[in-house]
């Protein structure tokens, strides 16, 4: 063996250590799947990047036991999470959509009524704070090894395995990997996706007055911001004018902000220095203000892109490698987390011999379907705000200017309600038509961003219920499958559990004597998948063998 070259074997190798890659490593680690993760960066994210963790993602963090830790990070618990609009930050406030601080958010979901009943509320936190927690949790599993500072130089897919070569950035050490599966979690410019020949389909860089085309991100520190501009704090601060439109998210509640502005056609991002980046921020403020630029870079808004394929025989992509969003509604990072939760248990089941090839293939069907849905929602949110153009004289200190500002503020606050009060897009994604779900002709609730109707029909999130003040139904679901039942023991239930045991599939037998929950689920028995999706429901089961064959990807229909 050549000096500095090591040959390693693993069941799964993950290329990329962002939210999708790290979450997948956790899902595999908790199932004792040997996993190697490599990322070319030297560590987890430095720049803020995504700034909102949706309630569904927080529910997944809760099942991992890290929701409280995540909620304690980022902004102080009493920091407002309002969405505020201004002509410029130091000039006129146009309107404000008030939202609760983190300390009050969970109390608002502790109800068994309405669209927002959930085990966790959304949380406004930068991705840079989430990733270290995910990394630490992944590294805690004996079967998982995390390697930052390693670049993949090549991979080859074979009939029964994948080989890959990784080089350490600062040494001459090389790892030659043999794995059963390789996962492309390597982001928007994914080498894995490109080598597979997969295309991103949809809208690329769709131009708008704002949130379309070239944008510029500035990560900055300005502790005196609110004192200088004379406004109440908000989580998300927007400017609305014809010269320097921008959005700015509070990162730590102590003076760090993630500022994004639309570049004008006469602005060359290649010439933007630290001082010019600070000037972009000052132009949005409309007042002279000191700030420290921590980093700055260009990026493109207007993407609504989904890969035409997610899976080759032994190679699978997810996260930004499989779909790209304009970050309206905060859907990109959250979609990536759900990709990992969906794929993790399926990979583990196939590697353990419990699932068939159809189970892996269902990942592409299910997650591509949701990616198309979510990019469509994000595009609609971006259109709503980005195609709303300021009127001439909006900033004038005249009666006409005042009327224009009032009209703009009314529109923007109504837009904020559409973009940021989204229980439907958060909880309502469904996998209808999936090859590992039973067919149904039942009428489904409408898919609406701003309203969510819980349903027990297989293919979606299980209806949530609070059993007590801090006792969520979801807390009682098993790590793997859960058979939720409301009746006395039946032959069908026994047969389902016995067939699962014969296949060595772990199923938690959860019996609840609760009429309200039974009514919500609409039947006597419900099988909840490991990704907390309803897989099957019924009061009887004619053939448990065929049922498990369907659910585990070993037959086409049931």
Per-chain topology:
Layout: E1 5-15, H1 19-29, E2 35-39, H2 55-64, H3 67-71, E3 83-86, E4 93-97, H4 102-109, H5 127-139, E5 144-148, E6 150-157, E7 162-168, E8 174-184, H6 191-196, E9 200-203, E10 213-221, H7 225-229, E11 236-239, E12 246-250, E13 256-262, H8 274-285, E14 292-301, E15 304-307, E16 315-317, E17 323-325, H9 332-351, H10 357-386, H11 399-420, H12 423-427, E18 466-468, E19 471-472, E20 481-485, H13 491-502, E21 507-511, H14 515-521, E22 525-528, E23 534-538, H15 544-551
Parallel strand pairs: 1-2, 1-8, 2-5, 3-11, 8-16, 20-21
Antiparallel strand pairs: 3-4, 6-7, 7-8, 9-15, 10-13, 10-14, 11-12, 12-13, 15-17, 18-19, 20-22, 22-23
Kindly state the number of beta strands. 23
Oligomer: single chain
Number of helices: 15
- Averaged pLDDT: 95
Shape: globular
Tell me the major beta sheet.
Answer: 7 strands, mixed
From the N-terminal CA to the C-terminal CA, the straight-line distance is 52 Å
Strand content: 15-25%
* Approximate helicity band: 25-40%
Give start-end ranges of low-pLDDT stretches.
none
Class of secondary structure makeup? alpha/beta
Rg for CA atoms: 24 Å
């Amino acid at each position: 063996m050549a000096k500095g070259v090591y040959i390693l074997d693993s069941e799964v190798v993950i290329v990329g250590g962002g939210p999708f890659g790290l979450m997948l490593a956790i899902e595999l680690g908790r199932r004792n799947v040997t996993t190697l993760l490599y990322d070319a960066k030297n560590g987890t994210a430095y720049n803020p990047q995504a700034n909102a963790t949706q309630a569904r993602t927080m529910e997944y963090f809760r099942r991992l036991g890290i929701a409280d830790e995540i909620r304690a990070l980022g902004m102080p618990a009493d920091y407002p999470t309002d969405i505020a609009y201004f002509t410029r930050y130091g000039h006129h406030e146009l309107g404000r959509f008030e939202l609760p601080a983190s300390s009050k958010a969970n109390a608002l979901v502790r109800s068994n009524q309405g669209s927002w009943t959930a085990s966790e509320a959304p949380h406004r936190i930068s991705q840079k704070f989430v990733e270290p927690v995910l990394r630490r949790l992944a590294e805690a599993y004996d079967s998982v090894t995390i390697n930052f500072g390693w670049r993949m130089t090549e991979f080859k897919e074979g009939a029964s395995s994948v080989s890959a070569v990784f080089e350490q950035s600062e040494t001459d050490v090389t790892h030659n990997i043999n794995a059963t599966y390789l996962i492309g979690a390597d982001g928007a410019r994914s080498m894995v996706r490109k080598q597979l020949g997969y295309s991103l389909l949809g809208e690329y860089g769709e131009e708008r007055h704002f949130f379309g085309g070239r944008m510029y991100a500035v990560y900055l520190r300005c502790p005196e911001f609110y004192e200088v501009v004379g406004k109440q704090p908000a989580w998300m601060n927007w400017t609305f004018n014809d010269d320097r439109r921008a959005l700015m998210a509070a990162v730590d509640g102590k003076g760090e902000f993630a500022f994004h502005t639309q570049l004008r056609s006469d602005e060359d991002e290649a010439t933007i220095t630290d001082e010019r980046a600070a000037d972009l921020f000052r132009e949005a403020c409309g007042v002279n203000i000191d700030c420290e630029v921590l980093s700055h870079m260009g990026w493109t808004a207007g993407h609504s892109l989904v890969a035409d394929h997610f899976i080759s025989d032994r190679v699978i992509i997810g996260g930004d490698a499989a779909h790209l969003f304009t970050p309206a509604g905060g859907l990109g990072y959250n979609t990536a987390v759900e990709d990992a939760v969906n794929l993790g248990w399926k990979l583990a089941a196939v590697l353990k011999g419990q699932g068939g090839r159809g189970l892996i293939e269902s990942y592409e069907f299910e997650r591509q379907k949701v990616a198309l849905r979510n990019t469509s929602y994000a595009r609609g949110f971006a259109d709503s705000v980005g195609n709303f153009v300021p009127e001439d004289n909006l900033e004038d200190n005249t009666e006409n200017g005042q009327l224009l500002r009032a009209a703009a503020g009314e529109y923007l606050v109504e837009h904020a309600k559409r973009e940021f009060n989204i229980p439907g897009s958060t909880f309502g994604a469904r996998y209808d038509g999936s090859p590992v779900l039973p067919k149904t002709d039942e009428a489904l609730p409408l898919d609406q961003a701003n309203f969510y109707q819980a349903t027990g029909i297989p293919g979606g999130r299980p209806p949530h219920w609070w059993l007590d003040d801090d006792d969520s139904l979801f807390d009682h679901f098993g790590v793997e499958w859960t058979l939720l039942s409301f009746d006395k023991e039946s032959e069908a239930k026994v047969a389902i559990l016995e067939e699962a045991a014969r296949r060595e599939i772990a199923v938690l037998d959860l019996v609840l004597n609760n009429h309200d929950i039974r009514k919500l689920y609409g039947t006597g028995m419900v099988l909840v998948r490991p990704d907390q999706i309803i897989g099957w429901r019924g009061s009887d089961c004619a053939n448990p063998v065929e049922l498990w064959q369907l659910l585990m990807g070993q037959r086409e229909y049931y």
